[in-house]
Amino acid sequence: MRRAALISIAAVLAAGCGPARRAASTTTTVAARTAPTGLAVGVVGPLSLDVAGARIEHGRLAELTGPRFVLVAANSTSLEAVAAAAAAHPATHYAFVGGSTKSSRRPNLVGLVLRDDQAALLGGVVAGLVAEEQGGANARVAWVGPEERKLAAAFARGVHESLPRAAVLHGYSKRIPSRCKEAAIGAVGRGAVVVMAHGGACAAAAADGAHQQDHVALDLSDFEVPEAAAAIVTRDAVAGVFHGGEDLVFGAASGAIGVRRLDPSIPSATAALARTAAQELASGLRPSG
Q1: Which of the residues in the chain have pLDDT under 50?
Q2: What superfamily in CATH does domain 39-114+225-252 come from?
């Protein structure tokens, strides 16, 4: 934070002599700069932070060699690149936000893992809410994309929390955008009024397929809030506590799982119910429809 101290310098210019001449004065104001305060925190990727005591600087990983603490969004940079930076700059601490560092442990590198099973469960709750509004108590929804049984099961549990009689379909495919889109279109053809996928290009393609059929699409990342986890470790860093050599896991109770964004075609009343369900999950309650 910059503070400006105003310094006044008076200069008297006397020209000639005699009673008819008077001294003229000029005042010049100079801003004296002070060094910025707070912990320098670098941010790589789409993370928005505002933490007291931290000076946030956005940039590329290779450029952020000055900050003592650097947060890197896992969807923007590979773990290998972050681990290499941590090895090259041992005095700087790094946080891999939204991913595990299990395969590349470093004493100055920590992974911030989000509970994707909780995100899938919340997505299922929202899918059930939307399905009831669009298709009634016996509506169908679908999980599409690569076969990830843990996440698909969590999604199904969430659907049945809000709509017990709903049918949950599976449209498994390879993690290839064209295949994910085909799986979504196929699920809609089987009667699904909502489709959900894990994330990335696969989920974007699945959403494109669902939207072409005028149906709602959900993405796992719709229910992940990496900024919440990033803010927690940044506050620790400001207090002088740095984590490394491990993964830290964040769930709904920390605010890292919640409604981040929703398909704009979801009615406002249903979106409000979705946010209430997210609050219940964060409070340790069973989300309800």
Answers
A1: 1-35
A2: Response regulator (3.40.50.2300)
